[in-house]
Amino acid sequence: MAGAAEDYSEYLGAKTARIASAEQVENYTVYVIEVTAGTNTWTVRHRYSEFSELHEKLLSEKKVDKNALPPKKLLGNMSKSFVEKRQKELEAYLQMLLEKHQDCIPKVLERFLDFHLYEIFGVTHALAEELFTKGDMILSAGEVFHMTPMQLHAISTRLQMPISPCHSEDARSDLSHVLDFVYKLKYLQVTGAEGNLGSSNISVSSLSFDMAMFKCLQQVQITQCNAKLVTGLDSLKKTLATLGVHQSTSAIKDVLIPAASSISQWKTEEETQDYLLSTVVPVWGVITTADFSHNQIQHIDESLKLIPKVEFLSLSHNAISTLDHLQHLSCLTHLDLSHNNLTTVDALHTKIGNVKTLNLAGNKLETLEGLSKLYSLVTLDVGHNTIYQVSDMKHIGTLPCIESVLLNGNPVTMVTDYRTKVLATFYDRSKEVCLDGVTTSQKEQDTVAVLQAIQKAKLAKER
C-alpha cells in the first residue's frame, strides 16, 4: 500500500504515548494514557485486559511480536510496586508500537488510542470507513449529513498534503471515499462545541476548514464554529439555497464575503460603474432562506445585497438595535427579528414593504408606529415588548391582510377587556383576526360590535 512504501513523517508529526498515571477502580487498575500527535494531545483510559485484546488483534495481523506485551499476573497485581512496574512496561509497549508503525498506524491501534477522534489521519480514516459502508445509502435517501469541525479540518488538512489518498493498509480507509461523498452531498450540518474537543487540547473554535470540497450542497447549517476560519463557502453560490449560521459570527459579511477583511471596497455585479476601484463580488444567486439567528450580530451590514433572492431571513437572538440595508431584499416575505435590542421601527414599509410574516417579539418596542403601511403583512408577532396602550393598535388596525397578531407578554394585555378593545381597532375585520393565538369568539364579536357602535356615535356627535 502507498503508506507502507513512502516516508510521510514530515507531514504526520511525531506520535508518542505516555502513561501519566494509574487509577484504582474497584478490583482493577485503569492506566491514564497521554497521547501526542504533532501539537495535539489528549488522554485515554484503558485497563490491562484491553491492552491484551489489542495485542491479540495485532498478533492476528502480524503487527507485533508475541512476547512484546508484559504477561498477565493473577496475584499481587494491585500492589503499588507492581502497578508502577506495569505502568512503565505498558508505556514502553505503546511507544514501541508507535515507533514501529509511525507512518501507517494499524486501525486497531488508532482506535485504542483515539486517533480516530483527535488526529488528522485517524479522523479521515474513520470517516472514510463509515462512508464506504453507508455513503451511497445516505446520498440516495437525501438525508442531512452531520459532520464536525474536526472532520472538516482533517479533510482540509489532508488535501493540502502531497500524500496518497490511500494512506492506510485498509482500502476502506481511502480518503477518496470521503471526497467522492462530499462532492455529491446536498444537505450538510456542521456542529461544533464550546471549549476543547473531548479530552484533548484542541480548541474547536480555532479549527479552520475549507468548504470548497463540496460541489452540490443545497443546504448547509453551521453551528458553533468560527466563521472567519471557514473558507470556500462562497464556492457554493451556484447551488446553495438554504444557509444557516449560528453561534459563529458577529458580522453577516464574514459569512457572505469570506475575504471581507482583505477587501476595502466592493460592489455587486449589478451595481453601476461608479465604483471602478471596487472589487466585484458575485451575488449568491440561489439562496432563498438565510438564517443568522443566535449569533453576536450588532449591525446589519450591506453584504445583505449579495442575497437578493432571499425570501426567508432570520436574525433573531442577536444584538441588533437598528434596521439597515433590508431594502436590498425585494423578495423578502418572512422576517424574524425577535430577541434583539430594537426600540423603534420607523417607516418599515420603505425597507420591507412585501413582508407577509414579521416577528419582532422580545425586543424593547413601546409603539407599533412604523408598521402602518405594511400592506402585505399577514402575521405579526410583537409579544414580550413594552407596549402599554390599546390606542397603539391603530397603527396596524387598518392593514388589509392582517390575520394574526401576538401581543402576549406586553403591559397592554393587563388592560381591562384587553381582547375586545384590541379587536375593536380592526373594525370590520375584527372577526377575521386571531389575537394571541385565539380566534375571536361570537361573544367577543358581539362586544366588539357594541364598542364600534359607541365609537361611531361618539364621532358623529363630535361632528
Automatic annotation (TrEMBL):
Keywords: Leucine-rich repeat, Repeat. The keyword Protease does not apply. This is PX domain-containing protein. Residues 9-128 form the PX domain. GO terms for molecular function: integrin binding; phosphatidylinositol binding.
